[in-house]
Structure formats: C-alpha cells, structure tokens
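hey so i finaly got around to running the thing on Polyphosphate--glucose phosphotransferase from Nocardia niwae. pasting the sequence first so u can double check i didnt mess up the copy paste, my clipboard has been acting weird all day
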Amino acid sequence: MSARGHAFGIDIGGSGVKGATVDLATGELVHDRIKIATPHPATPFAVAEAVAELVDKAKWTGPVGLTLPAVVIGGVARTAANIDKSWIGTDARALFSAALGGRPVTVLNDADAAGMAEDHYGAARNFAGLVMLLTFGTGIGSALLYHGTLVPNTELGHLEIQGMESEHRAAASIKERDGLSYEQWAAQVSLVLTTLENLFFPVVFVAGGGISRDSEKWIPLLTNRTPVIPARLRNTAGIVGAAMAITGGIAP
Ligand code: BGC
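ok and heres what it spat out for the 3d tokens, dont ask me to read them lol
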C-alpha cells in the first residue's frame, strides 16, 4: 500500500486481465481500468507476462493483489474448473512475484475478492450477519462473509443439486448456451439459492457477475426466501477486493 492509502488490484478473468489503483478509503478506482486481453491458452506463464505488461503500463511499483478463478491456498492454485488445467499446483504467488521483479504479491480467489469488496464498500455494507455473494458468469463463484471476515475458497458453485453441479445448472453461461429465457434461468437460480439458504441461512445474497447489470429482469422472478440484491461495484469488485487483500484482509 502506498502512503496515500492506495493499493493495486488485478482481476484475472477468461477474457481480460484488468487492473487499477484503488483508493482504500472509498473503494473507488483512482484511474480507468487497464485491460489486457487474456492470452490463449491462458497458461500460468502467459498470464504472468500479461500481468507484468499491465503493471508496467500503470507505472505501479508497489505490491500487487491478484485474483484467480480458482481455489488459492498459500498462494498456490488448487483447482482450475474454467481455466487452463496447468494452473493446478502452480505457485501463483511466486510466479507473479517473479514476473514483477520480486515485489510482494497476494493472490486470492476471484469471488472471494468480489465478496470482500461488496461487503466492505458495496451492496452488503449495511447488512449485519452472514453475507453470501455469488458471481454468475462462466461458472458460479461464491464468497461467504461473517461480520467482514471471509471464509475463503467456499466453491459453492460446485455444490451438487439433484445430480448436477450448481454452476452447470445456473451459471450465466448456461443461460447463453441453452438460449434460456430469464424465467427459465431464474427457476434454476432459485433452486440453487433455496438449497444454499437451507444450508447456510445467510441474511442476504449479493448477486454479482455481468448478468447482475440486468438484475431487474430476473431478481424479481426468484422464488427463494432470502433477499437477493445486485452487486454494486459491478466490474470493479474483483480489482477492489484484490487491492484490499494486500493489506492483510485475507491470507488463505
Ligand atoms: C471456480 C471458482 C471461481 C468461479 C468464478 C468456479 O468454476 O471453481 O474458483 O471462483 O468459477 O470464476
């Protein structure tokens, strides 16, 4: 973190590697997001090169927080549901640090980062109790926070319901792939949310991912009982959460 309370976060996704300097007092970006297309195949080495290019473009010299769409424990990626399988077992922290001239880096799961940001600065900031954020994208990411403390790497998108993983049932990519109407897709999301609320009893669900931009088209169709609110930080949540993680918010 810089003296001005600024930190740098990078969100690594399937289509873009996006980063910015974040003002930790407000959770706002200090400048426009810098985006580099995610290399294909998105192998660890190729992604690390994109990360180095992005940080170079930003002229940022301090520590960097990064997200991965994977379970991350002690800086090591442990899963790769929707990313190149070569990430499994990769010490992402060591890789990114080396690509950035040996500076300190923190790596965490993408949904965990979004959850921390929404809990602290965004949609869930005024809710006391258990907050569950779900990101609906290529897969379903999850973050569980209790009074601001994250339970890392929850991976609820892989919870099997009636013989099918939740993210194979209700990710935004499934709506797209199968040409589902909002009504049809919301029925699947409702089933996932009802199952989750019966297991965890959160006070609120925060719905993130690109499809949360159209929340008025589908949140009113949901039939589960716990309130569902759209994410507020939208496409900056991962960046903001990654920047927050540097200051010790999380070290899974
Ligand atoms: C991965 C999670 C990730 C989520 C959203 C899932 O397939 O297993 O780690 O958070 O997708 O990217």
